[in-house]
Design brief:
Helices cover 44% and strands 16% of the residues. It is an alpha/beta fold and 275 residues long. It has 2 domains: 151 residues, 3-Layer(aba) Sandwich (Rossmann fold), CATH 3.40.50.1860; 111 residues, Rossmann fold.
Length: 275
């Protein structure tokens, strides 16, 4: 049974602040929608954790978002999309989408030489999910994955334009530069915040795919098709955007305000283990 209230919010979750890049695109592409965002800041990063752990975390968060009456859920985390999407979607009576399919589709459409790079967490790259999805779309695509585990903590610390970040990015990306890729998927929602650094190192000829934008478009189309898009004429009751975290609410709020179109006035901390 699908939630019938068109004015219900959309739920978005991530391991931390990275999913804010998805929230930002959803705010831009469908500004009339309400959002409930959860960042699992107590348990970040997800990329080095096991599949079972990520599945357990994802189920808890889905239960929390359902308690907020959401009409659809976006898993704004590549690791959780790779390891938990199919299971939680099957267990839930509302639409659940992840960030992988939309990004994979765009990369396949963009490549000219059939060589696509994917950067992500160890879990995302190790799962082989991007290779599987892209080769289902076009069997002769070559996918070269590179785990960049230090990118998430660097972004979480706000070191977006820093010599340390530049040095680490150069080391990670040099492997891909030697593989003659022409398209690169930013396969972790934190990575678009390092886009300018990645662009400088990879050069202008490599197409950078940001799955956050593609996911916002996919959500917009899904809501429209199922008649679940919010009526823009309807007045908002309470806050249009609500933010919840499992730890460090103030740090999250400051970071969110720095990258989102509007100031984040309040972030609430909850006990996610209770769900």
């Amino acid at each position: 049974m699908i939630q019938t209230d068109r004015n219900a919010p959309v739920g978005i979750f991530d391991s931390g602040v990275g999913g804010l890049t998805v929230a930002r695109e959803i705010m831009r592409q469908i500004p009339e929608e309400r959002i409930v965002y959860f960042g699992d800041t107590a348990r970040v990063p997800y990329g080095s954790k096991s599949r079972d752990t990520i599945l357990r975390y994802s189920r808890q968060i889905v239960r929390f978002l359902q308690s907020q009456g959401v009409k659809a859920i976006v898993i704004a985390c590549n690791t959780a999309s790779a390891y938990a999407l199919d299971e939680v979607a099957a267990e839930t009576d509302i639409p659940v989408i992840g960030v992988i399919n939309a990004g994979a589709r765009t990369a396949v459409a963009a490549t000219r030489n059939g060589r696509i790079g994917v950067i992500g967490t160890e879990a995302t790259v190790g799962s082989g999910i991007y290779t599987k999805v892209m080769q289902e779309m076009k069997p002769d695509i070559q996918v070269i994955g590179k785990a960049c585990p230090l990118f998430v903590p660097l972004v979480e610390e706000g070191l977006l334009h820093d010599s340390v970040t530049d040095e680490i990015a150069s080391r990670y990306l040099s492997v891909l530069k030697n593989k003659y890729i022409d398209t690169l998927v930013l396969g972790c929602t934190h990575y678009p915040l390092l886009r300018s650094t990645v662009r400088r190192i990879m050069g202008e000829d490599v197409v950078l795919v940001n799955p956050a934008y593609e996911t916002a478009i996919e959500l917009r189309d899904l809501l429209k098709k199922s008649g679940m898009n919010r009526n823009p004429e309807e007045a908002f009751e309470g806050e249009q955007y609500q933010f919840f975290v499992s730890d460090l609410a103030e740090k999250f709020r400051d970071f969110a305000t720095s990258i989102l179109p509007n100031e984040v006035k309040e972030t609430r901390q909850i006990e996610i283990e209770n769900y």
